[in-house]
Each structure stands twice: as C-alpha cells, then as structure tokens.
Design brief:
247 residues; 16-stranded antiparallel β-sheet
C-alpha cells in the first residue's frame, strides 16, 4: 500500500514537472478564461512572461509567473506572479485547484492608476487593494477578504471644482457575487459606494453623497444624481470592459 502511494506521488510529480516545461503560450491558449487576452507569452509554465495582458479589453500590463513545484503534489498548481508595466501593478500568489475547479488569490497587493483605465467617469489617483484571500469555484465567488482604498475623490473627480475624502472599505462574497463597499467622510462631504460584480462580470454601482456645498449640489443634479433624504443618489450598471454604463 505504501509503495503504491509513493508511486502515485512520484507519477503526479513527474507529470507535473513535464507540464511545467510546456511553453507558456500553449498552456494559456488552452486554459485562459475567455475575457483574458494577451499580446504574447514567453518562456515556460515554470518561469514565464505574459506581455500585453488585458481583461475584457482593459489593459493590465505585463505579468511574470513562477510555478511552485511543491504545489503540483497537492493537485493545486500555485505560482507567484508580478504585474507591471501598465495601468495595474501588483504581486501575489495564485493557485488553481484541479479537483474542485477553484481559483484562489492570496497575499496580494494591487494598485491601479485610474486615469489610465476606462472608468465610468473621468477619474485620477490610485485604487489599491490588499488581498488577504479571494477564491472562486467555477465562476462563483466563494470567499473574499480584501481591504480597499482609493484617492480618486481627492483629485477633482469628473472635472468638478471639488475635492472629497479618501475612501476605504472591503470586498466580500455574497451568493456567488463579489460585493464592494467604500466609504469616506470629511468636513464637507459624506459618501458611500456599494457595488457588486457577478460571475459574468456584470456590475452594479450605487453612490450616495451627502454634502452642504451649494455648487456641488447643483453640479450633482445636473449630472443626473437624484436628491433624497439621505443625500444624492446615482446608480450604474453594465459589464466590465464592454460599452458605457447604464444609469
């Protein structure tokens, strides 16, 4: 029994080592999800580079990948990754469960330059995330523990003559969807943003902004925000990387 178990481990490790020597471009063409595209891939699965990485047309930059040999024994290939050279930078750990069809991102720090991304409205500044753990099973969000922060509202957002507070919040999972909450407050404004992203990358975004600034209130009304008892509201929805958001 012990011999059979050892032979099984050896066989898995041997096949894994063979797979690790495959050209990275061959593997990406076979397993990359449909929304992911890239200009070219270099090297092998063991140590490779992906140039011009894009998600639904959104430019992410270039990625460096390094496979962990020990992860092959767990039938959950894992790799260290680093992203740079584009609108998004970051590094972390990614693993793929071959048995349960899971994808897990952990120990990651990611930052995006908003002015280089196709945002719904003109924005600048940074959007950053510290990813303690995020996992998907199939296409559904299973677990998420992510700290979020952005300086977008401190940089005259949407061309307004106004600077708002820095925002911070969390990302989590709810019924297979990724949910996001951001909030911030300063002497003149109080804002809350709640959003969801479905497994199909369809999103919703609800913004509530309280302010006593008369000029800002007029600008918000002109931009389509509706005023209620708890502030100005606006709702967006669409699909990430496709077309313009709907109000």
């Amino acid at each position: 029994m012990k011999l059979r178990y050892l032979l099984l481990i050896f066989g898995v490790a041997f096949l894994g080592l063979l797979a690790a020597r495959l050209p990275l471009s061959l593997v990406l063409d076979a397993v990359a999800p449909r929304p992911v595209a890239y200009a070219r891939a270099e090297g092998t699965v063991w140590n490779g580079h992906v140039r011009g990485l894009r998600l639904r047309g959104v430019p992410l930059g270039d990625a460096e990948l390094a496979l962990s040999p020990l992860s092959l024994l767990r039938l959950a290939p894992g790799l260290d990754w680093r992203l740079g050279g584009g609108a998004v930078t970051g590094r972390g750990w990614l693993s793929i469960g071959l048995l349960d069809r899971s994808i897990t991102l952990a120990g990651a720090d990611v930052a995006a330059e908003l002015e280089r991304l196709p945002t719904m409205v003109p924005l600048s500044g940074l959007f950053a995330a510290t990813v303690h753990a995020v996992s998907w099973q199939g296409r559904a969000c299973r677990q998420a523990d992510v700290d979020l922060r952005t300086s977008a509202l401190t940089r005259n957002p949407m061309g307004l003559d106004w600077q708002g507070p820095a925002l911070a919040g969390k990302a989590a999972c709810d019924n297979g969807m990724l949910t996001v909450t951001l909030a911030g407050k300063d002497a003149g404004s109080d804002i809350t943003i709640r959003g969801t992203v479905s497994p199909e990358l369809a999103y919703t975004l609800d913004v509530v902004l309280k302010t006593g600034d008369r000029d800002l209130r007029q600008s918000l009304a002109a931009m389509g925000y509706e005023e209620g008892r708890d502030g100005f509201h606006i709702h967006f929805e669409g699909i990430i990387g496709i077309g313009q958001p709907e109000l």
